[in-house]
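Quick one, C-alpha coordinates below. Sequence please?
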Protein backbone atom coordinates (compact mmCIF):
# COMPACT_ATOMS: atom_id res chain seq x y z
CA UNK A 1 0.00 0.00 0.00
CA UNK A 2 1.33 3.38 -1.00
CA UNK A 3 2.25 5.88 1.69
CA UNK A 4 0.37 9.18 1.40
CA UNK A 5 0.13 12.30 3.54
CA UNK A 6 -3.64 12.08 3.49
CA UNK A 7 -3.55 8.54 4.83
CA UNK A 8 -1.39 9.52 7.78
CA UNK A 9 -3.18 12.76 8.62
CA UNK A 10 -6.25 13.44 10.71
CA UNK A 11 -8.95 15.69 9.23
CA UNK A 12 -10.89 18.26 11.23
CA UNK A 13 -14.15 19.49 9.75
CA UNK A 14 -15.08 23.12 10.30
CA UNK A 15 -18.67 24.24 9.80
CA UNK A 16 -17.78 27.90 9.36
CA UNK A 17 -21.16 29.33 10.29
CA UNK A 18 -20.93 27.83 13.76
CA UNK A 19 -17.21 27.76 14.51
CA UNK A 20 -16.05 31.21 15.62
CA UNK A 21 -17.42 34.70 15.03
CA UNK A 22 -14.72 37.38 14.82
CA UNK A 23 -16.86 40.42 13.96
CA UNK A 24 -19.79 40.17 16.34
CA UNK A 25 -22.62 39.53 13.88
CA UNK A 26 -23.58 36.17 15.38
CA UNK A 27 -22.25 34.24 12.37
CA UNK A 28 -18.93 32.39 12.28
CA UNK A 29 -16.41 33.62 9.70
CA UNK A 30 -13.00 33.12 8.10
CA UNK A 31 -11.09 35.40 10.44
CA UNK A 32 -12.72 33.50 13.25
CA UNK A 33 -11.23 30.29 11.86
CA UNK A 34 -7.79 31.89 11.50
CA UNK A 35 -7.93 32.93 15.15
CA UNK A 36 -8.37 29.30 16.15
CA UNK A 37 -5.61 27.74 14.05
CA UNK A 38 -3.28 27.45 17.01
CA UNK A 39 -5.98 25.56 18.87
CA UNK A 40 -6.31 23.15 15.94
CA UNK A 41 -2.55 22.73 15.60
CA UNK A 42 -2.34 21.97 19.29
CA UNK A 43 -5.10 19.38 18.95
CA UNK A 44 -2.81 17.64 16.46
CA UNK A 45 -4.97 17.58 13.35
CA UNK A 46 -3.26 17.94 9.96
CA UNK A 47 -5.97 18.74 7.47
CA UNK A 48 -8.88 21.16 7.73
CA UNK A 49 -12.01 20.60 5.68
CA UNK A 50 -14.25 23.64 5.44
CA UNK A 51 -17.91 23.27 4.63
CA UNK A 52 -18.76 25.71 1.79
CA UNK A 53 -17.63 29.31 2.17
CA UNK A 54 -18.68 30.46 -1.31
CA UNK A 55 -21.26 33.09 -2.18
CA UNK A 56 -24.67 31.68 -1.38
CA UNK A 57 -28.19 32.78 -0.43
CA UNK A 58 -27.95 30.14 2.31
CA UNK A 59 -31.10 28.22 1.64
CA UNK A 60 -29.05 25.16 2.67
CA UNK A 61 -26.25 26.94 4.54
CA UNK A 62 -23.84 27.32 1.66
CA UNK A 63 -24.59 24.00 -0.07
CA UNK A 64 -26.45 26.20 -2.57
CA UNK A 65 -23.74 28.18 -4.33
CA UNK A 66 -24.48 31.29 -6.37
CA UNK A 67 -20.85 32.03 -7.29
CA UNK A 68 -18.18 29.32 -7.14
CA UNK A 69 -15.32 31.78 -7.27
CA UNK A 70 -16.41 34.25 -4.61
CA UNK A 71 -16.48 34.18 -0.81
CA UNK A 72 -19.76 34.53 1.07
CA UNK A 73 -19.98 38.08 2.38
CA UNK A 74 -21.00 36.98 5.86
CA UNK A 75 -17.78 34.95 6.08
CA UNK A 76 -15.41 37.68 4.90
CA UNK A 77 -13.43 38.45 1.76
CA UNK A 78 -11.12 36.64 -0.64
CA UNK A 79 -8.27 38.37 1.15
CA UNK A 80 -9.41 36.87 4.47
CA UNK A 81 -9.52 33.49 2.78
CA UNK A 82 -6.04 33.86 1.30
CA UNK A 83 -4.69 34.97 4.63
CA UNK A 84 -6.32 31.97 6.32
CA UNK A 85 -4.77 29.59 3.79
CA UNK A 86 -1.36 31.13 4.33
CA UNK A 87 -1.71 30.76 8.10
CA UNK A 88 -2.84 27.14 7.71
CA UNK A 89 0.19 26.33 5.55
CA UNK A 90 2.53 28.19 7.90
CA UNK A 91 1.48 25.75 10.59
CA UNK A 92 2.11 22.82 8.25
CA UNK A 93 -1.54 22.00 8.02
CA UNK A 94 -3.55 21.61 4.82
CA UNK A 95 -6.86 22.87 3.52
CA UNK A 96 -9.62 20.89 1.84
CA UNK A 97 -12.50 22.84 0.32
CA UNK A 98 -16.04 21.66 -0.26
CA UNK A 99 -17.01 21.12 -3.89
CA UNK A 100 -20.76 21.26 -4.50
CA UNK A 101 -21.38 20.56 -8.17
CA UNK A 102 -24.30 18.17 -8.33
CA UNK A 103 -26.36 21.36 -8.09
CA UNK A 104 -25.91 25.11 -7.77
CA UNK A 105 -28.13 27.75 -6.24
CA UNK A 106 -31.09 28.96 -8.28
CA UNK A 107 -29.51 32.38 -7.74
CA UNK A 108 -26.39 31.38 -9.68
CA UNK A 109 -26.04 33.48 -12.87
CA UNK A 110 -26.19 30.25 -14.92
CA UNK A 111 -29.62 29.38 -13.57
CA UNK A 112 -30.86 32.95 -13.80
CA UNK A 113 -30.04 32.80 -17.50
CA UNK A 114 -31.22 29.24 -17.91
CA UNK A 115 -34.72 29.90 -16.70
CA UNK A 116 -35.23 32.93 -19.01
CA UNK A 117 -36.08 31.08 -22.21
CA UNK A 118 -35.88 27.67 -23.83
CA UNK A 119 -33.26 28.86 -26.29
CA UNK A 120 -31.03 30.64 -23.79
CA UNK A 121 -27.41 29.46 -24.16
CA UNK A 122 -27.50 28.37 -20.50
CA UNK A 123 -30.79 26.48 -20.81
CA UNK A 124 -29.02 23.15 -21.04
CA UNK A 125 -26.84 23.80 -17.98
CA UNK A 126 -29.74 22.42 -15.93
CA UNK A 127 -32.26 19.62 -16.35
CA UNK A 128 -35.53 20.95 -17.81
CA UNK A 129 -38.47 18.79 -18.88
CA UNK A 130 -42.11 19.12 -19.87
CA UNK A 131 -44.70 17.96 -17.37
CA UNK A 132 -46.61 14.70 -17.92
CA UNK A 133 -50.39 14.74 -17.84
CA UNK A 134 -50.45 17.95 -15.87
CA UNK A 135 -47.98 16.64 -13.28
CA UNK A 136 -44.23 16.45 -12.78
CA UNK A 137 -42.05 14.80 -15.45
CA UNK A 138 -41.48 11.81 -13.14
CA UNK A 139 -42.29 10.59 -9.63
CA UNK A 140 -38.93 11.15 -7.90
CA UNK A 141 -38.99 12.41 -4.32
CA UNK A 142 -36.45 15.03 -3.27
CA UNK A 143 -34.00 14.31 -0.44
CA UNK A 144 -35.69 17.11 1.49
CA UNK A 145 -39.36 16.01 1.13
CA UNK A 146 -41.81 16.60 -1.73
CA UNK A 147 -41.28 16.29 -5.47
CA UNK A 148 -37.78 16.59 -6.98
CA UNK A 149 -39.28 18.86 -9.67
CA UNK A 150 -40.41 22.45 -9.63
CA UNK A 151 -42.53 24.16 -12.24
CA UNK A 152 -41.19 27.39 -13.65
CA UNK A 153 -43.86 29.72 -15.01
CA UNK A 154 -41.57 31.67 -17.34
CA UNK A 155 -41.07 28.79 -19.80
CA UNK A 156 -43.75 26.37 -18.67
CA UNK A 157 -41.29 23.57 -17.89
CA UNK A 158 -40.07 21.81 -14.77
CA UNK A 159 -36.46 21.71 -13.51
CA UNK A 160 -34.95 18.88 -11.48
CA UNK A 161 -33.69 19.44 -7.93
CA UNK A 162 -32.70 16.41 -5.87
CA UNK A 163 -32.39 18.72 -2.83
CA UNK A 164 -34.37 21.96 -2.16
CA UNK A 165 -36.16 23.85 -4.93
CA UNK A 166 -33.39 26.46 -4.60
CA UNK A 167 -30.78 23.80 -5.53
CA UNK A 168 -31.32 22.97 -9.22
CA UNK A 169 -29.27 19.98 -10.44
CA UNK A 170 -26.56 20.80 -12.97
CA UNK A 171 -26.73 18.90 -16.23
CA UNK A 172 -23.53 16.87 -16.35
CA UNK A 173 -24.46 15.52 -19.78
CA UNK A 174 -23.54 18.97 -21.06
CA UNK A 175 -19.83 19.12 -21.85
CA UNK A 176 -19.72 22.86 -21.22
CA UNK A 177 -20.99 22.38 -17.68
CA UNK A 178 -18.26 19.86 -16.99
CA UNK A 179 -15.64 22.20 -18.41
CA UNK A 180 -16.88 25.03 -16.18
CA UNK A 181 -16.54 22.73 -13.15
CA UNK A 182 -12.99 21.61 -14.00
CA UNK A 183 -11.90 25.20 -14.68
CA UNK A 184 -13.30 26.27 -11.35
CA UNK A 185 -11.51 23.41 -9.57
CA UNK A 186 -8.24 24.46 -11.22
CA UNK A 187 -8.87 28.04 -10.08
CA UNK A 188 -8.92 26.89 -6.43
CA UNK A 189 -6.05 24.43 -6.79
CA UNK A 190 -3.96 27.19 -8.38
CA UNK A 191 -4.62 29.19 -5.24
CA UNK A 192 -2.93 26.40 -3.32
CA UNK A 193 -5.63 24.30 -1.70
CA UNK A 194 -4.87 20.70 -0.84
CA UNK A 195 -8.02 18.90 -1.83
CA UNK A 196 -11.76 18.69 -2.20
CA UNK A 197 -14.58 17.10 -0.28
CA UNK A 198 -17.11 16.43 -3.01
CA UNK A 199 -20.74 16.86 -2.08
CA UNK A 200 -23.05 13.99 -3.17
CA UNK A 201 -20.66 13.43 -6.05
CA UNK A 202 -22.03 10.00 -6.98
CA UNK A 203 -25.38 11.56 -7.94
CA UNK A 204 -24.09 13.59 -10.90
CA UNK A 205 -24.99 11.10 -13.63
CA UNK A 206 -28.67 10.34 -14.18
CA UNK A 207 -30.23 7.54 -16.24
CA UNK A 208 -31.08 8.92 -19.70
CA UNK A 209 -34.79 9.51 -20.07
CA UNK A 210 -35.15 10.03 -16.31
CA UNK A 211 -37.58 7.11 -15.85
CA UNK A 212 -40.07 6.82 -13.02
CA UNK A 213 -38.87 5.25 -9.79
CA UNK A 214 -40.34 1.95 -8.71
CA UNK A 215 -43.21 2.49 -6.26
CA UNK A 216 -41.88 1.23 -2.94
CA UNK A 217 -44.04 3.30 -0.60
CA UNK A 218 -47.67 3.21 -1.71
CA UNK A 219 -48.70 5.86 0.82
CA UNK A 220 -46.26 8.40 -0.57
CA UNK A 221 -46.95 10.42 -3.68
CA UNK A 222 -43.26 10.66 -4.62
CA UNK A 223 -40.81 7.77 -4.66
CA UNK A 224 -37.14 7.20 -4.01
CA UNK A 225 -35.44 7.29 -7.43
CA UNK A 226 -31.90 6.35 -6.38
CA UNK A 227 -31.69 3.54 -8.92
CA UNK A 228 -31.65 6.27 -11.58
CA UNK A 229 -28.98 8.54 -10.16
CA UNK A 230 -26.85 6.81 -7.50
CA UNK A 231 -23.53 5.79 -9.14
CA UNK A 232 -25.26 6.57 -12.45
CA UNK A 233 -24.18 5.26 -15.86
CA UNK A 234 -21.55 7.93 -16.66
CA UNK A 235 -20.29 8.57 -13.12
CA UNK A 236 -16.89 6.90 -13.56
CA UNK A 237 -16.43 8.46 -16.99
CA UNK A 238 -17.09 11.96 -15.59
CA UNK A 239 -14.75 11.35 -12.68
CA UNK A 240 -11.97 10.10 -14.94
CA UNK A 241 -12.38 13.20 -17.04
CA UNK A 242 -12.25 15.37 -13.90
CA UNK A 243 -9.00 13.66 -12.91
CA UNK A 244 -7.50 14.17 -16.36
CA UNK A 245 -8.50 17.79 -16.65
CA UNK A 246 -7.97 18.92 -13.10
CA UNK A 247 -7.01 16.73 -10.15
CA UNK A 248 -4.08 14.74 -11.46
CA UNK A 249 -2.02 17.88 -12.05
CA UNK A 250 -1.87 18.66 -8.31
CA UNK A 251 -0.91 16.87 -5.10
CA UNK A 252 -4.39 16.89 -3.62
CA UNK A 253 -6.66 14.54 -1.73
CA UNK A 254 -10.29 13.96 -2.59
CA UNK A 255 -13.10 12.56 -0.50
CA UNK A 256 -16.36 11.86 -2.21
CA UNK A 257 -19.55 12.09 -0.24
CA UNK A 258 -21.31 9.09 -1.73
CA UNK A 259 -24.74 8.24 -0.36
CA UNK A 260 -25.93 4.62 -0.74
CA UNK A 261 -22.46 3.45 -1.71
CA UNK A 262 -21.59 -0.19 -0.97
CA UNK A 263 -18.15 -1.54 -0.05
CA UNK A 264 -17.60 -2.98 -3.58
CA UNK A 265 -18.26 0.48 -5.05
CA UNK A 266 -16.09 2.12 -2.42
CA UNK A 267 -13.25 -0.24 -3.31
CA UNK A 268 -13.65 0.53 -7.02
CA UNK A 269 -13.90 4.31 -6.57
CA UNK A 270 -10.80 4.49 -4.35
CA UNK A 271 -8.73 1.74 -6.04
CA UNK A 272 -5.08 2.81 -6.09
CA UNK A 273 -4.68 1.69 -9.71
CA UNK A 274 -7.97 2.48 -11.37
CA UNK A 275 -9.95 4.56 -8.86
CA UNK A 276 -11.10 8.16 -9.11
CA UNK A 277 -11.12 9.38 -5.48
CA UNK A 278 -8.74 9.14 -2.52
CA UNK A 279 -11.58 7.99 -0.28
CA UNK A 280 -15.34 8.10 0.12
CA UNK A 281 -17.78 8.84 2.91
CA UNK A 282 -20.02 5.81 3.23
CA UNK A 283 -23.31 5.90 5.15
CA UNK A 284 -24.01 2.30 6.16
CA UNK A 285 -23.06 2.90 9.80
CA UNK A 286 -25.06 6.13 9.88
CA UNK A 287 -28.22 4.24 8.96
CA UNK A 288 -27.88 1.68 11.70
CA UNK A 289 -30.38 3.36 14.06
CA UNK A 290 -33.13 3.83 11.50
CA UNK A 291 -34.89 2.24 8.59
CA UNK A 292 -34.01 4.36 5.58
CA UNK A 293 -36.25 2.30 3.28
CA UNK A 294 -39.34 3.06 5.37
CA UNK A 295 -41.83 5.83 4.84
CA UNK A 296 -40.05 8.01 7.39
CA UNK A 297 -36.71 7.44 5.67
CA UNK A 298 -33.84 9.05 7.57
CA UNK A 299 -36.24 10.20 10.29
CA UNK A 300 -37.13 6.71 11.47
CA UNK A 301 -35.74 5.90 14.88
CA UNK A 302 -34.74 2.34 15.76
CA UNK A 303 -32.54 0.75 18.41
CA UNK A 304 -29.21 -0.43 16.98
CA UNK A 305 -27.04 -3.46 17.64
CA UNK A 306 -23.30 -3.61 18.14
CA UNK A 307 -23.06 -6.81 16.08
CA UNK A 308 -24.53 -4.92 13.12
CA UNK A 309 -22.02 -2.10 13.60
CA UNK A 310 -19.25 -4.71 13.54
CA UNK A 311 -20.60 -6.27 10.38
CA UNK A 312 -20.72 -2.90 8.59
CA UNK A 313 -17.35 -1.57 9.70
CA UNK A 314 -15.65 -4.89 9.07
CA UNK A 315 -17.12 -5.19 5.61
CA UNK A 316 -15.69 -1.77 4.72
CA UNK A 317 -12.34 -2.51 6.36
CA UNK A 318 -11.81 -5.81 4.59
CA UNK A 319 -13.25 -4.81 1.21
CA UNK A 320 -10.87 -1.87 0.86
CA UNK A 321 -7.78 -3.41 2.46
CA UNK A 322 -4.90 -3.49 -0.03
CA UNK A 323 -7.02 -1.83 -2.73
CA UNK A 324 -8.39 1.54 -1.72
CA UNK A 325 -8.66 3.64 1.41
CA UNK A 326 -11.38 4.31 4.00
CA UNK A 327 -12.56 7.51 5.59
CA UNK A 328 -13.46 7.08 9.26
CA UNK A 329 -16.13 9.26 10.83
CA UNK A 330 -18.91 9.28 13.39
CA UNK A 331 -20.06 12.87 12.95
CA UNK A 332 -20.42 15.67 10.48
CA UNK A 333 -22.72 18.66 9.93
CA UNK A 334 -25.54 16.37 8.74
CA UNK A 335 -25.50 13.87 11.60
CA UNK A 336 -26.50 13.92 15.25
CA UNK A 337 -23.74 14.05 17.87
CA UNK A 338 -22.05 10.69 18.37
CA UNK A 339 -21.88 10.74 22.16
CA UNK A 340 -25.67 11.18 22.27
CA UNK A 341 -26.20 8.61 19.55
CA UNK A 342 -23.81 5.77 20.40
CA UNK A 343 -22.59 6.63 23.90
CA UNK A 344 -24.17 7.88 27.10
CA UNK A 345 -24.17 11.68 27.14
CA UNK A 346 -25.66 11.80 30.64
CA UNK A 347 -23.97 9.38 33.02
CA UNK A 348 -20.83 8.47 31.11
CA UNK A 349 -20.26 11.51 29.00
CA UNK A 350 -16.49 11.60 29.31
CA UNK A 351 -15.93 7.87 29.25
CA UNK A 352 -18.18 7.11 26.33
CA UNK A 353 -16.93 10.05 24.22
CA UNK A 354 -13.35 8.82 24.68
CA UNK A 355 -14.32 5.22 24.00
CA UNK A 356 -16.01 6.16 20.73
CA UNK A 357 -12.94 8.08 19.58
CA UNK A 358 -10.71 5.09 20.29
CA UNK A 359 -13.05 2.68 18.55
CA UNK A 360 -13.28 4.47 15.18
CA UNK A 361 -10.03 6.42 14.82
CA UNK A 362 -7.77 3.39 15.01
CA UNK A 363 -9.28 1.49 12.11
CA UNK A 364 -7.62 1.52 8.68
CA UNK A 365 -8.42 4.85 7.05
CA UNK A 366 -8.23 8.58 7.56
CA UNK A 367 -10.03 9.73 10.71
CA UNK A 368 -12.31 12.77 10.56
CA UNK A 369 -13.21 14.84 13.61
CA UNK A 370 -16.18 17.16 13.40
CA UNK A 371 -15.91 20.47 15.30
CA UNK A 372 -16.96 20.05 18.91
CA UNK A 373 -16.68 16.28 18.80
CA UNK A 374 -13.31 16.62 20.52
CA UNK A 375 -15.05 18.05 23.60
CA UNK A 376 -18.02 15.69 23.44
CA UNK A 377 -20.63 18.20 22.31
CA UNK A 378 -24.09 16.66 22.53
CA UNK A 379 -27.46 16.77 20.79
CA UNK A 380 -29.80 19.62 21.64
CA UNK A 381 -33.58 19.86 22.12
CA UNK A 382 -35.21 23.17 21.27
CA UNK A 383 -38.79 23.50 22.53
CA UNK A 384 -40.08 25.28 19.48
CA UNK A 385 -39.74 24.42 15.81
CA UNK A 386 -39.08 28.15 15.33
CA UNK A 387 -35.69 27.75 16.96
CA UNK A 388 -34.56 25.29 14.30
CA UNK A 389 -32.79 26.67 11.24
CA UNK A 390 -32.29 23.68 8.96
CA UNK A 391 -34.37 23.60 5.77
CA UNK A 392 -34.50 19.79 5.93
CA UNK A 393 -36.02 19.92 9.41
CA UNK A 394 -38.61 22.52 8.41
CA UNK A 395 -39.63 20.68 5.23
CA UNK A 396 -40.08 17.47 7.24
CA UNK A 397 -42.07 19.19 9.97
CA UNK A 398 -44.32 21.01 7.48
CA UNK A 399 -45.00 17.88 5.49
CA UNK A 400 -45.74 15.72 8.53
CA UNK A 401 -47.39 18.07 11.02
CA UNK A 402 -48.85 20.88 8.93
CA UNK A 403 -49.89 18.94 5.83
CA UNK A 404 -50.56 15.45 7.19
CA UNK A 405 -51.61 16.30 10.73
CA UNK A 406 -49.19 13.84 12.35
CA UNK A 407 -48.57 14.03 16.07
CA UNK A 408 -46.34 17.02 16.78
CA UNK A 409 -44.61 15.38 19.73
CA UNK A 410 -43.65 12.37 17.66
CA UNK A 411 -42.20 14.49 14.87
CA UNK A 412 -40.31 16.71 17.34
CA UNK A 413 -38.87 13.54 18.86
CA UNK A 414 -37.51 12.44 15.47
CA UNK A 415 -35.97 15.91 15.08
CA UNK A 416 -34.35 15.67 18.53
CA UNK A 417 -32.78 12.35 17.59
CA UNK A 418 -31.94 12.79 13.90
CA UNK A 419 -32.07 16.52 13.04
CA UNK A 420 -29.01 18.12 11.49
CA UNK A 421 -29.15 21.16 13.75
CA UNK A 422 -27.88 18.89 16.55
CA UNK A 423 -24.47 19.31 14.94
CA UNK A 424 -24.86 22.96 14.01
CA UNK A 425 -25.18 24.73 17.34
CA UNK A 426 -22.26 27.11 18.00
CA UNK A 427 -18.91 25.68 19.01
CA UNK A 428 -18.60 25.77 22.81
CA UNK A 429 -15.35 27.61 23.52
CA UNK A 430 -16.00 28.73 27.10
CA UNK A 431 -18.70 29.31 29.71
CA UNK A 432 -18.93 32.98 28.78
CA UNK A 433 -21.90 34.53 26.97
CA UNK A 434 -22.91 32.58 23.86
CA UNK A 435 -20.29 29.98 24.74
CA UNK A 436 -17.51 32.35 23.67
CA UNK A 437 -18.58 31.82 20.05
CA UNK A 438 -19.74 35.41 19.53
CA UNK A 439 -20.49 38.68 21.33
CA UNK A 440 -23.88 38.85 19.67
CA UNK A 441 -26.83 36.51 19.61
CA UNK A 442 -25.83 33.63 17.31
CA UNK A 443 -27.78 32.68 14.17
CA UNK A 444 -28.81 29.48 15.97
CA UNK A 445 -29.14 28.98 19.71
CA UNK A 446 -26.27 27.70 21.78
CA UNK A 447 -26.69 24.30 23.44
CA UNK A 448 -27.49 25.20 27.08
CA UNK A 449 -24.91 22.70 28.34
CA UNK A 450 -22.05 25.01 27.24
CA UNK A 451 -21.49 26.01 30.86
CA UNK A 452 -20.20 22.52 31.62
CA UNK A 453 -19.03 21.31 28.20
CA UNK A 454 -16.54 23.75 26.69
CA UNK A 455 -12.98 24.00 25.41
CA UNK A 456 -11.64 26.24 28.16
CA UNK A 457 -12.74 23.93 30.93
CA UNK A 458 -11.32 20.91 29.12
CA UNK A 459 -8.00 22.57 28.47
CA UNK A 460 -7.62 22.93 32.21
CA UNK A 461 -8.63 19.36 33.01
CA UNK A 462 -5.92 16.80 32.35
CA UNK A 463 -8.47 14.00 32.14
CA UNK A 464 -10.73 15.78 29.67
CA UNK A 465 -12.06 14.42 26.39
CA UNK A 466 -10.06 17.10 24.60
CA UNK A 467 -6.78 15.97 26.14
CA UNK A 468 -7.62 12.38 25.35
CA UNK A 469 -8.16 13.28 21.67
CA UNK A 470 -4.72 14.89 21.60
CA UNK A 471 -3.12 11.80 23.05
CA UNK A 472 -5.02 9.47 20.74
CA UNK A 473 -3.96 11.43 17.65
CA UNK A 474 -0.33 11.16 18.78
CA UNK A 475 -0.57 7.45 19.43
CA UNK A 476 -1.93 6.83 15.93
CA UNK A 477 0.70 9.06 14.35
CA UNK A 478 3.53 7.27 16.14
CA UNK A 479 2.50 3.76 15.13
CA UNK A 480 2.39 2.76 11.49
CA UNK A 481 0.49 -0.36 12.45
CA UNK A 482 -2.44 1.85 13.47
CA UNK A 483 -2.37 3.62 10.12
CA UNK A 484 -1.42 1.03 7.52
CA UNK A 485 -1.99 -2.25 9.36
CA UNK A 486 -4.62 -4.74 8.23
CA UNK A 487 -7.75 -5.14 10.37
CA UNK A 488 -9.17 -8.27 11.97
CA UNK A 489 -12.44 -8.33 13.91
CA UNK A 490 -12.66 -10.42 17.10
CA UNK A 491 -15.91 -11.86 18.48
CA UNK A 492 -18.41 -10.74 15.83
CA UNK A 493 -21.44 -11.82 17.89
CA UNK A 494 -20.51 -10.05 21.13
CA UNK A 495 -23.12 -7.31 21.72
CA UNK A 496 -21.12 -5.51 24.41
CA UNK A 497 -17.49 -5.27 23.44
CA UNK A 498 -16.07 -4.21 20.08
CA UNK A 499 -12.55 -5.66 19.76
CA UNK A 500 -10.26 -5.76 16.76
CA UNK A 501 -6.60 -6.14 15.95
CA UNK A 502 -4.33 -4.39 13.47
CA UNK A 503 -1.25 -6.00 11.99
CA UNK A 504 1.75 -4.77 10.01
CA UNK A 505 5.11 -6.53 9.56
CA UNK A 506 5.14 -8.35 12.89
CA UNK A 507 3.70 -5.35 14.72
CA UNK A 508 0.30 -6.03 16.23
CA UNK A 509 -2.22 -3.86 18.05
CA UNK A 510 -5.40 -4.68 19.91
CA UNK A 511 -8.27 -2.21 20.34
CA UNK A 512 -10.96 -3.07 22.87
CA UNK A 513 -14.06 -0.93 23.47
CA UNK A 514 -16.84 -1.60 25.96
CA UNK A 515 -20.04 -0.16 24.50
CA UNK A 516 -22.10 -0.65 27.67
CA UNK A 517 -22.57 1.05 31.02
CA UNK A 518 -21.65 -2.18 32.80
CA UNK A 519 -18.38 -3.65 34.03
CA UNK A 520 -17.44 -6.59 31.83
CA UNK A 521 -14.86 -9.35 32.04
CA UNK A 522 -13.55 -9.67 28.53
CA UNK A 523 -11.26 -12.54 27.65
CA UNK A 524 -8.91 -11.67 24.86
CA UNK A 525 -8.50 -14.15 22.04
CA UNK A 526 -5.34 -16.26 22.21
CA UNK A 527 -4.28 -14.76 18.92
CA UNK A 528 -3.22 -11.65 20.86
CA UNK A 529 -0.78 -12.20 23.78
CA UNK A 530 -2.14 -9.40 25.93
CA UNK A 531 0.11 -10.28 28.91
CA UNK A 532 3.21 -9.44 26.93
CA UNK A 533 1.73 -6.35 25.40
CA UNK A 534 2.48 -2.71 25.99
CA UNK A 535 -0.53 -0.52 26.75
CA UNK A 536 -0.62 2.44 24.38
CA UNK A 537 -3.64 4.35 25.62
CA UNK A 538 -6.88 3.91 27.56
CA UNK A 539 -9.70 6.00 28.99
CA UNK A 540 -9.33 4.75 32.58
CA UNK A 541 -6.18 4.59 34.73
CA UNK A 542 -4.30 1.44 33.84
CA UNK A 543 -4.58 -1.67 36.01
CA UNK A 544 -2.64 -4.91 35.92
CA UNK A 545 -4.90 -7.92 35.48
CA UNK A 546 -3.95 -11.57 35.68
CA UNK A 547 -4.21 -13.73 32.59
CA UNK A 548 -5.85 -12.77 29.35
CA UNK A 549 -9.03 -11.42 30.91
CA UNK A 550 -9.59 -7.70 30.97
CA UNK A 551 -11.86 -6.27 33.63
CA UNK A 552 -13.44 -3.51 31.64
CA UNK A 553 -15.24 -0.66 33.36
CA UNK A 554 -18.30 1.02 31.83
CA UNK A 555 -17.41 2.38 28.39
CA UNK A 556 -13.78 1.51 28.91
CA UNK A 557 -11.47 1.46 25.89
CA UNK A 558 -7.88 0.24 25.74
CA UNK A 559 -5.20 -0.18 23.13
CA UNK A 560 -2.32 -2.65 23.38
CA UNK A 561 0.64 -3.40 21.16
CA UNK A 562 3.05 -6.31 20.76
CA UNK A 563 5.94 -6.87 18.41
CA UNK A 564 6.55 -10.43 17.37
C1 LIG B 1 -24.73 16.85 1.52
C2 LIG B 1 -24.34 17.94 2.44
O1 LIG B 1 -23.46 17.44 3.41
C3 LIG B 1 -25.62 18.49 3.02
O2 LIG B 1 -25.38 19.37 4.09
C4 LIG B 1 -26.39 19.14 1.91
O3 LIG B 1 -27.63 19.56 2.39
C5 LIG B 1 -26.60 18.19 0.75
N1 LIG B 1 -25.44 17.42 0.42
C6 LIG B 1 -26.99 18.95 -0.48
O4 LIG B 1 -25.90 19.72 -0.92
Amino acid sequence: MERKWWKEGVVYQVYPRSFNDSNGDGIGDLRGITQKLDYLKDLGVDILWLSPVYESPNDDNGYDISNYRAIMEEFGTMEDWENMLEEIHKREMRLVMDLVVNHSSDEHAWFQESRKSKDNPYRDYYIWRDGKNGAEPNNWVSFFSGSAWDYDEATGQYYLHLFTDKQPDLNWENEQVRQEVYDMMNFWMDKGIDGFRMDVINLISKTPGLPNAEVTNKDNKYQWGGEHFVNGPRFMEFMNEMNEQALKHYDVMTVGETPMVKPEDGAAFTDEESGVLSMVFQFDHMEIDGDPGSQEGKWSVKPWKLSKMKEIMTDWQTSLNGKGWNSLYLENHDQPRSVSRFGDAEEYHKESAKMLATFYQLMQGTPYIYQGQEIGMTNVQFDSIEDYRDVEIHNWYNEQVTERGKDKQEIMHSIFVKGRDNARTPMQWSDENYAGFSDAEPWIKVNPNYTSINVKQQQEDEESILNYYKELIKVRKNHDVLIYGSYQLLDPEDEQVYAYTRELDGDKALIVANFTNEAIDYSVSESFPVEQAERLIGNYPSEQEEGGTLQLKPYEARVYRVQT
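The longest helix spans residues 175-190. The first strand starts at residue 11 and ends at 14.
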